[in-house]
């Protein structure tokens, strides 16, 4: 693994472990609408390094491990870190926008940041195919996963499915998409069709934003 990936994983693990053992620390730095609107904007950032439990932490770090190197190989460490942190904040920003009327809405996790890296990886590697642990003999194109997961996230937001920050996933994908285009505009000419396909669920999200918001 690249040293930047190792550093991000170590930071996530250390802060999450602190949150597991210190409830007041967890409550102080988690994403929560009410405190953020009252001036505690630091939660927009710190919540991206906290996790609910070991499984939540493991799956986010495993996804980061899988998708980070392809992004670093093409964009370099500095741009990779920009996409990671930018997607983290984009996820928090979208969650704040969608849930601004619910002061008790809270969330934690690196999912927004990781989703941004996943989206960047798919944009940069249009031939990427993904194999899932429960279906080892079946793989799907990366762009199908990207589009399908965002459509599921929109459905999950609307139906409030599970204890999952669907809005942060969507925001992270938006961050990864926009920042990849900004930092490496050549990706559009190189992978024009895939870029357009990946933009579709993002456009749909903004078109139907009022229907997805937590009112």
Provide tags for this entry.
two-stranded antiparallel sheet; 7% strand; Rhomboid-like fold; 12 helices; 215 residues; 4 strands; mainly alpha
Describe the structure.
GO terms for molecular function: peptidase activity. This is Rhomboid family intramembrane serine protease. It holds the Pfam family Rhomboid. Strands 1-2 form a two-stranded antiparallel ribbon. Strands 3-4 form a two-stranded antiparallel ribbon. The radius of gyration is 17 Å and the shape is globular. Helix 1 (3-21) crosses helix 2 and helix 5 (54-75) packs parallel to helix 7 (111-124). The chain is built from twelve helices and four strands, in the order H-H-E-H-H-H-H-E-H-E-E-H-H-H-H-H. The model has no long low-confidence stretch (mean pLDDT 88). The protein has 215 residues and is mainly alpha-helical. It has a single domain (3-212), classed as Rhomboid-like fold (Up-down Bundle), CATH 1.20.1540. A hairpin with a 2-residue loop joins strand 3 and strand 4. The chain has helices at residues 3-21, 23-29, 33-37, 43-46, 54-75, 77-98, 111-124, 142-159, 166-183, 186-190, 192-207, 209-212; strands at 31-32, 106-107, 129-132, 135-141.
In short:
The chain has 12 helices and 4 strands, in the order H-H-E-H-H-H-H-E-H-E-E-H-H-H-H-H. With 215 residues, the protein is mainly alpha-helical.
């Amino acid at each position: 693994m690249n040293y930047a990936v190792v550093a991000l994983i170590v930071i996530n693990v250390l802060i999450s472990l602190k949150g597991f053992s210190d409830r007041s620390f967890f409550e102080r730095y988690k994403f929560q609408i009410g405190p953020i609107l009252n001036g505690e904007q630091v939660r927009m950032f710190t919540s991206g390094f906290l996790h609910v439990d070991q499984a939540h932490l493991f799956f986010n770090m495993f996804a980061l491990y899988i998708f980070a190197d392809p992004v670093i190989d093409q964009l370099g460490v500095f741009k990779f870190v920009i996409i990671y942190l930018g997607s983290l904040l984009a996820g928090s920003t979208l969650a704040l926008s969608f849930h601004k009327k619910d002061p008790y809405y809270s969330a934690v996790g690196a999912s927004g940041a990781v989703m941004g890296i996943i989206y960047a990886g798919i944009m940069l590697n249009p031939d990427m195919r993904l194999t899932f642990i429960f279906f080892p003999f079946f793989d799907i194109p990366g762009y199908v996963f990207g589009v399908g997961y965002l459509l599921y996230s929109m459905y999950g937001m609307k139906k409030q499915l599970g204890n999952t920050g669907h809005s942060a996933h969507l925001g992270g994908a938006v961050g990864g998409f926009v920042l990849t285009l900004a930092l490496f505009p050549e990706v559009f000419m190189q992978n024009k069709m895939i870029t357009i396909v990946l933009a579709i669920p993002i456009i749909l999200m903004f078109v139907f934003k009022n229907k997805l918001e937590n009112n």
